[in-house]
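Aim 2 progress update. The chain analyzed this quarter is reproduced below.
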Amino acid sequence: MKKTLAHFVLAAAFAIVSCTKPFRPVEAECRSVFYGFTGVVTAKPDSLPLCRFGIISKNSGLKLPLAQLRNSERSAQGAFDTVAHCYYAFGSNDGSDPTVLYRINLEGRVEALTNSEYRLLFNGLLYSRFDGRLYAFRRNAGASGVAVCQILTYPDRFEAKELVKDIWGVAANTVISSAVDNNTGKLYFRLGTDSTFEIYSFQPGDSAAKKLLSQKKSRIFGLCFNPADERLYAIRQDSTKTRFVKIDNQGNTTVIDTLPFRPDPASFCAAIDRCANQYMLMGKVSNTHGYLVRLAMNGSIMGRDTTDGILQAVTAAR
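Predicted structure tokens:
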């Protein structure tokens, strides 16, 4: 069939908006690639810093800048769609709570997707390789009930499909830490305050979330699921100590080691390098610099480095 100019124009249009990268042969060795962005803290909420997005080195922070975006330091979690090859992170373009979903392809194109229900606040973003879907946790502004949502994306907006709602825990408006088991699709998320936390699990398709763990006089953050042993890993703090812990699917917690430093949960994110068998935690040193600590899964410190900018919403692409 003879192709007209219209065919080529249409094909080019789809190529522009697509996140999918050209096919490359699957490499046999295990390789972990991490994406995220760096930012600085500003005293003016209405004048957000210009953040740099790209590939994150495991010992020096941002290695390969691909794009820039204006955002606040409230983006604790990012997600990478391994099918469409797009990175997603909730953020703010005006200094308010996260209500904008940023979509960035590997060529550096940034799209800010908005939601018609502008007062809905989102965090705890996840991509499930099990079913190829985006998930997040939503609350109404000023309320405490949390809903688990599937995030549906379109060229200029996103929608949130409620899967289960009205989860009322201890300060249920603070879901900033979540994880997914990519072998089963089960989601895990934390509700908590500075002194109490609860961890819930939710299997998409179920009618309710299940409380996995509840603990007082401590807080927990940096939830990551390790497929090697099918356990959750996290950082737990009480009034005097910071511990690296793992949690089984019954909610039983094992202290792996006590850490000689105290991360700031307000600027914290974490990821697991499944290839190197390391847990990476990132946070704020100052308003312009951060840190990146690599822990072996037995708790020993493999490296601790200062980064230019505060690493945010770091997630594995493989």
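Residues 75 and 195 are 22 Å apart (CA to CA). Helices lie at 5-17. These observations will guide the mutagenesis experiments scheduled for the next reporting period.
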